[in-house]
Amino acid sequence: MTQYNREELSLILQVLAGITLTMGLAFTLSIYSGLTPGFEMIIAAIGLAIIIGCWGGMKHLGFMVTVILAVILFAIYFNFAALLG
Length: 85
What we know:
mainly alpha
């Protein structure tokens, strides 16, 4: 396997891990509290991205960006009814 293939596979797995982690967090919070606390979830994702960034550096940039974008998307998705009314 070439270095390019390893980097691409690593990026794909980072994106999938970020989506899976945030989906689990949003689903768990929606089960326990009825409505997903959107701001708390977004702040937790930003905190996790900062910790991963300081610990692992820029090689995990795909994971950090995916976590932040997915948590914003899931916060809107799980709180859509509250946003309308």
